Predict the 3D structure of the following.
Amino acid sequence: MSRVRIHNYFVSLDYLHVVVVPVTLGEGQRAYPDGLDLSERFDREFLSTPTGRTHQLWNRRT
């Protein structure tokens, strides 16, 4: 997915719940491209579980 498409996706987003599972396939791939700074638009909360999953909760700032 191109950086422009990802940027446009996050512009129209209000809430996002992402679950990250620590699995590497091949060399791995970044979930978000370098240079995509979303910290000014979203409040983020990261919750880890005993099973190794990380829940990312993204809420758009108003």
Q: What stands out?
A: The chain has one domain: 3-60. Residues 3-60 form one domain.
